[in-house]
Amino acid sequence: MELVTLSDVQAAARNIDGVAVRTPLLAAPWAGASRGPQGEAARAGLGVELWLKPESLQPVGAFKLRGAYHTVALIPADVRANGVVAHSSGNHAQALAFTARAFGIPCVIVMPDVSSPVKIAATRALGAEVELVPPPERLNRCAEIAAERGMTVVPPFDHHDVIAGQGTVGLEIVADLPDVACVLVPVGGGGLASGVAVAVKALRPEAVVIGIEPELAGDAAESMAAGELRKWPVELTYRTIADGLRTALSERTFAHLRKYVDAVLTVTEAEIEGAMRELAVRGRLVVEPSGAVSVAGYLRHRAALPAGRTVAVLSGGNVGAEALVRVLS
Amino acid sequence: MELVTLSDVQAAARNIDGVAVRTPLLAAPWAGASRGPQGEAARAGLGVELWLKPESLQPVGAFKLRGAYHTVALIPADVRANGVVAHSSGNHAQALAFTARAFGIPCVIVMPDVSSPVKIAATRALGAEVELVPPPERLNRCAEIAAERGMTVVPPFDHHDVIAGQGTVGLEIVADLPDVACVLVPVGGGGLASGVAVAVKALRPEAVVIGIEPELAGDAAESMAAGELRKWPVELTYRTIADGLRTALSERTFAHLRKYVDAVLTVTEAEIEGAMRELAVRGRLVVEPSGAVSVAGYLRHRAALPAGRTVAVLSGGNVGAEALVRVLS
Predict the structure, then answer these.
(1) I want to staple B87 with a disulfide (CB 3.0 to 4.6 A). Which of A17, A145, B42, B142 is the partner?
(2) In angstroms, what separates the C-alpha of B17 from chain A's closest C-alpha?
(3) Which residues partner with B84 through β-bridges?
């Protein structure tokens, strides 16, 4: 299998320029002072070890826009005009709908008929057609629509161009913090972790890239330890509140993780909620459970991380008021 | 009185580079579609009219870092070495403490003895000495300390250099959104509004700059209408939850507002809390009441604003978990 390269990611950066927000790195001194070298940080009075990459501030509230937009941009114009289709009940749905509207092309999102009305409405509000089907029929229905209408399927993570697009997060991290020692990135299907690791390792090989996932959906950590792809049944992965990280890796993302990611570590549900609370009150950021696992991982595993500056990628911020109130109360 | 100029603000931008975060402009499509020209927005599928400038993401959680840092940077090095002093119980205290630590100089913050333990602790955590005095003695004690220790007083808003520093927010807005039609900015003491208006009007004279304040602390709106500075007693202004906006204008900031700000409009307490809720759930940003008045102003006064792209400055994000829970529940 051909893995994503740095030049693929650089091409993606050119495509998404002006569409995705160039999110800043934000210092998080509240997470503890630096154990590493001071340099410029000392001048700024910081001594900060943890920096946040708030992808929660993208339009549609998640990094997914990067991969979706880049992938659609690479479809030949005559084919692209027929539109795009995906099955998703999460952030990928809104990212693809947003992208299709930007290109002025049709978009169908196939969602499980058990999806929340809020997510259905949000996707429709972005101009996509939403088709509700029983969960086991999602893949088939998606393929059917693609065949019937000549639409291109844009998968949420198991796709070369999608991974390249997500990798732009890694490019920006190294550009903004050239001496970064460690990058923590949430792992669900593995698209974000794959892309970020490709970019970071190419530009700064000495940096460590670590995936973080919930213990309750710890399939990636198990796969890395076993040296082979292990998939957990949904009955297990659906126990975590981190709804964006319940997905298993694909062969493609596992291949990237094995080559470019140093380790995958896990966090508990209580640690995820604690990180969400700290991010809201001290970081002034609303982050969804899947996005907060990276900070939870920092707070839990800090002693085992390399000394120096660490970046935690906050992958998304789509969380309801009720869930926010619960973690803040 | 000599007013702040564009070149003062440009000098401030050079001083704060690498210290203050270059906050991005974030689209807020949830606040309503555009009535103005589409252009690039149409390409990006947005049609967005409201854009947010999240100064809540600065270190210390507020724009105050810009003015404090620039002002301290301009103090001659031999004088600066003696340290800085201010009286403040709010965001200016933490901004000055952060700045002093960055320069490696002493810092004393005089606070009312009724200040919350959280704010006192936060200021001490940044390395400042905190001196608690009865509220009426704050100014005198601050002057005494300055005289005794050779420290320079850095006022929260009534100072040429502080206003110039806050103006860098305006520079960045016009740089990122050259066709901006309207800028909404919170008004308390008026330092932020003064600086932003100077920069925006110099670079884009056709843009409208509007100050927003709580009805319950509507002294700036009254002053603008009367054409003379009107100060409200603290018994009145302390009714608003927007604790950063209870201060009266100074002669200096009023002079800037009269020359460069087109109008000052007011919002209710319920509108402020509604804006905080929308910003958290749909904007994924934790914003304090004083910072949310600009969005509250947009939502209330939208029909009266010029067509085209509007920027709301979110001045700060320092709000406790309890207050957040209240507006989200």
Answers:
(1) B142
(2) 11
(3) B107, B152
Closest CA to B315 of B297, B296, B283, B289: B289
In a domain, B190, yes or no: yes
Pull the structure tokens for residue B276: 């905080």
- Judge whether B63 is closer than 8 Å to chain A, CB to CB: no
End-to-end CA separation in angstroms for chain B:
48
Interface contact A57-B26, CB threshold 8 A:
yes
Enumerate residues 6+ apart whose C-beta is below 8 A from B105: B72, B80, B81, B82, B83, B84
Domain stop point among B106, B139, B158: B158
Please tell me whether residue B214 adopts helix, strand or coil conformation.
strand
What is the enclosing helix (H) or strand (E) of B193? helix B191-203
Which domain range does residue A118 map to?
A: 64-157
CA distance, residue A81 to nearest chain B CA (Å): 15
Total structural domains in chain B? 2
Assess whether B315 carries a catalytic annotation.
Answer: yes
| pLDDT per residue as tens, chain A (329 positions) | 899 999 999 999 999 999 999 999 999 988 875 444 344 444 343 456 999 999 999 999 999 999 999 999 999 999 999 999 999 888 999 999 999 999 999 999 999 888 888 889 889 999 999 999 998 899 999 999 999 999 999 999 999 999 999 999 999 999 999 999 999 999 999 999 999 999 999 999 999 999 999 999 999 999 999 999 999 998 999 999 999 999 999 999 999 999 999 999 999 999 999 999 999 999 999 999 999 999 999 999 999 999 999 999 999 999 999 999 999 99
**B321, A44: Cβ pair inside 8 Å?**
no
Asked if B134 and B211 sit in the same domain, the reply is no
CATH number at residue A48: 3.40.50.1100
* CA count, 13 A, side-chain hemisphere, A77: 0
> Which of A45, A104, A284 faces B317 most closely, judged by CB atoms?
A284
Contacts of B102 in chain A (CB under 8 A): 43-46
Residue type, A130: V
> What is the reported pTM?
0.94
B contacts of A99 (beta carbons < 8 Å): 45
Whole-angstrom distance, CA of residue A50 vs CA of residue A62: 20
**B53, B64, B119, B201: which is the annotated catalytic residue?**
B64
ipTM (interface predicted TM): 0.93
> Which residues in chain B are contacts of A103 at CB distance < 8 A?
45
- Looking at residue A62, the DSSP 8-state letter turns out to be B
User: Is residue B19 less than 8 Å (CB to CB) from chain A?
Assistant: yes
Which of B207, B250, B188, B169 minimizes the C-alpha distance to B3? B250
Q: Is residue B225 part of a domain?
A: yes
A84 and A113 housed in the same domain: yes
Say yes or no for a CB contact (<8 Å) between B44 and A19: yes
Residue B46, pLDDT > 50, answer: no
On whether residue A19 sits in a domain, the answer given is no
Question: Could you tell me the strand order of the sheet in which A50-54 lies?
Answer: A26-27, A50-54, A310-314, A182-186, A208-214, A263-267
Mutate to test the interface with A, among B15, B56, B57 (most CBs of A within 10 A): B57
In a domain, B13, yes or no: no
Q: Which of A114, A137, A157 is where one domain is finished?
A: A157
Residue A278: φ, ψ to 5°: -60, -40
